[in-house]
Amino acid sequence: MHEHAVVIVGAGPTGLMLAGELALAEVDVAVLERRPGQDLVGARAGGLHARTIEVLDQRGLADRFLSRGATAQVAGYAGVPLDISDFPTRHPYGLALWQNHIERLLADRAGELGVPVHYGHDVTGAVQDGAGVDVDLSDGRRWRGQYVVGCDGGRSRVRKTAGIAFPGWDATTSSLLAEAETDEEPEWGIHQDALGKHAFRRTEGGQVGIMVTERHVGPGREPTLRELRDALVAVYGTDYGVHSPTWLTRFTDTTRQAASYREGRVLLAGDAAHVHAPDGGQGLNTGVQDAVNLGWKLAQVLRRTSPEHLLDTYHAERHPVAARVLRHTMAQVALRRPDERLRAVGGTVAELLGMEEPRRRFAAMMSGLDIRYDLVPGHPLLGRRMPDLDLRTADGPLRVFGLLHEARPVLLELAGQAPDGVDVRPWADRVRRVHAECAGPWELPALGTVPAPTAVLIRPDGHVAWVGEGTRSGLEEALTTWCGPPAGARGEAAGTVAPEPRPLCRRMVPED
């Protein structure tokens, strides 16, 4: 039996991002993937929103992705473009980059960090006990982890065998996506009719990319070439002699969310935790940000610096984020229905989004730049993403995001503030303390300028956990909550975690 601190099921963008986050904390993690290899057939999802690019920038990875794609204004709502070029971020744009490239770059990163990704491993279930989780494979083999994270998609075996409910709404519309050959020249571009939207495009490999809305909701299985031909004939009167598809899939507006993102030692992220229509391009981005929220928390619990209940904050913070995504994708699906009354509503929405204040609010939401976790009341920075400010330090100029490359908490103290009130030395092994000067305004998308604090505690995911406004009030509590109890009290807190832990870092793992 293979044993690891964490077993991740699924090597899509969410699973690979999570593997990298855990490896940064030197956690022994392995990834199991059903596909026979890393290659992803077809382009699938495409595009990263601004906040996801920022998340990659926090780890020093953004340039890898930016060099492979094209920056563009990708945010939109129900077909209405939303320009974020005037937003206070180093990345006031999205990135057009297909999922196969995104996965390859994340797999490269995982490999650099020594994470073993085992392809051809079809997981059939996960059963937990008081000390860990057994993961069963279709060939009879078994793996074991102290924790298991299901990143295995909307039909997640991990979620099902953990008994986590997946309530929501069934599909009301479906479309086929394919890359194939055609004998006849198709009608290139996007077309709209009484059924919905349809499109043809030329792919990177020279094939024809096809999207066609079906007349009736398709069955919950992989579609056939015959179904693709029938759908094309229903819309265009011809199937253009379509043949030899390299991939063919069906997407719907099925909308579901896991009732809980955690059941004991089993956690869910990405599509295993939430599925919805692709309108707005939120799915992949939400999953990657799930991984960044979960990774450092799980690492701290495994390293026994934080009690296990820190993992409860993962559900508390990320479930509402995805719930909002689900609400707005359902709204966008409704607004694109071929119904004259809904067209009238869509026209009204488009008119509203042309106004400055609605544009800024919806653009911040769709780009992910307005996410705020409900921590404690107070300064408007609390729970929000930390701006990537330019800092002047004794070691020279730095960017805030540059302080987060190692995924450690940062206590940023601005010049002129005496370090009195709380002794932070008991957290010195976990928190990077930086004294700096900062010139210029503190701005947040949609909110605008906020009062400049005297100090901030930044979590590894880049969200602000504490704000100092001339005093250290609340700092000790914030450090204990997000970084674990002070060094002298860690034994008591660690008692709530698993018994004697296995090694957290195992760089060399034998292949099967």
Automatic annotation (TrEMBL):
Gene3D superfamilies: 3.30.70.2450, 3.40.30.120, FAD/NAD(P)-binding domain. The keyword Oxidoreductase applies. Keywords: FAD, Flavoprotein, Monooxygenase, Oxidoreductase. Its cofactor is FAD. Signal peptide: none annotated. One of its GO terms (molecular function) is monooxygenase activity. It comes from the Bacteria. Residues 5-328 form the FAD-binding domain. SUPFAM superfamilies: FAD/NAD(P)-binding domain (SSF51905). Pfam families: FAD_binding_3 (PF01494), Rng_hyd_C (PF21274). This is FAD-dependent monooxygenase.
